[in-house]
Amino acid sequence: MASVYLGSWVQSYSIFNQASRSKSFLFPSSFPFNPLMNLSSSTLKAHGFTSVPSVSAVFTKGDTVKDEEQHPQNPSFDFKSYMIQKATTINQALDSAVPIRDPVKIYEAMRYSLLAGGKRVRPVLCLAACELVGGQESKALPAACAVEMIHTMSLIHDDLPCMDNDDLRRGKPTNHKVFGEDIAVLAGDALLAYAFENVAVSTVGVSHGRIVRAVGELAKSIGAEGLVAGQVVDICSEGLTDVGLDRLEFIHVHKTAALLEAAVVLGAILGGGCDEDVEKLRKFARYIGLLFQVVDDILDVTKSSKELGKTAGKDLVADKLTYPKLIGIEKSREFAEKLRSDSLELLQGFDPEKAAPLVALANYIAYRQN
């Protein structure tokens, strides 16, 4: 893969020149169900939940991008309708995958965060990649749900007092504020375990070899070679003054991009993609994964907590390493645009109609407002 460019000058990054991670990972309708319906009434009332969230509500006016920008390769593609349809499918599957059982408390905690809303970008990427290589949505749906379970786990744990110590997530009190730190930790642990069970047990119509390969990809993306590695380096970098872009990229490629990459790669594998297509989509996902975090860094210092649905400016308060901190907001925006355009180049050669969702998702990630 070509080196990543920062704005108008060239900055070479070793992570983007490494071999594929399969060898060494260096780096407008409402929901058809109530995602909080099985929480006890006392829990709901205590935390102000009085209505069912709407899928379309996650796409605000600020998120809307002009058609010519959002879908340059397929102006007829209706991105909002696509996301609503996919999010509805995913939310139904998540609701079915994690029903209320005994002990009730842990399932309430798991569902509280898992079904709290969100755009479902990661699982939608998984389904879109599956369909791009010719697979049926159903083959990748358990994996898509698994990715969202793991993402939710990471959010629950990120918000804990020992980590980011956050009180707000998706506009609601964080898990530990509702259920306590002990139950929040266990809810995250349970979701992590459920994720792998869901892929292994619920995937149908796919060869055992591809399922095992997908499980391996997912495990590597979140362990000490993936998400955990990024978290550790991020924690160890707080307050340091002698750090540069190489370390920042390492953090973001592992902490954020790794799971986004896994989502796309799992979809491609389970959809029956050839090795060449899987690796091309891996590179695409690595770019948009880094893009996602660069945009997050920018939004953290340019948007309010109300606009973000989470605490704004917390990276600044914690003296965390971010792109705006190292190169400024404007250069960070230039870098984001470079990542977006490079990611789209990797979709050349695929069927434009089937690639339209991934094109639109890359643009959405780049231009989102929360």
TrEMBL record:
Cofactor(s) named in the record: Mg(2+)
Pathway of action: Isoprenoid biosynthesis; farnesyl diphosphate biosynthesis; farnesyl diphosphate from geranyl diphosphate and isopentenyl diphosphate: step 1/1; Isoprenoid biosynthesis; geranylgeranyl diphosphate biosynthesis; geranylgeranyl diphosphate from farnesyl diphosphate and isopentenyl diphosphate: step 1/1; Isoprenoid biosynthesis; geranyl diphosphate biosynthesis; geranyl diphosphate from dimethylallyl diphosphate and isopentenyl diphosphate: step 1/1
Name the SUPFAM superfamilies on file.
Answer: Terpenoid synthases
| GO BP term, example | carotenoid biosynthetic process
Keyword check for Metal-binding, yes or no. yes
Keyword line:
Carotenoid biosynthesis, Isoprene biosynthesis, Magnesium, Metal-binding, Transferase
Q: Name one GO cellular component term.
A: cytoplasm
Q: Name one GO molecular function term.
A: geranylgeranyl diphosphate synthase activity
| One Pfam family this sequence matches | polyprenyl_synt
Q: Which residues form a coiled coil?
A: none
Q: Does the keyword Acyltransferase apply?
A: no
Q: Say which family it is in.
A: Belongs to the FPP/GGPP synthase family.
Identify this protein by name.
Answer: Geranylgeranyl pyrophosphate synthase
- From which source organism is this entry? Hibiscus syriacus
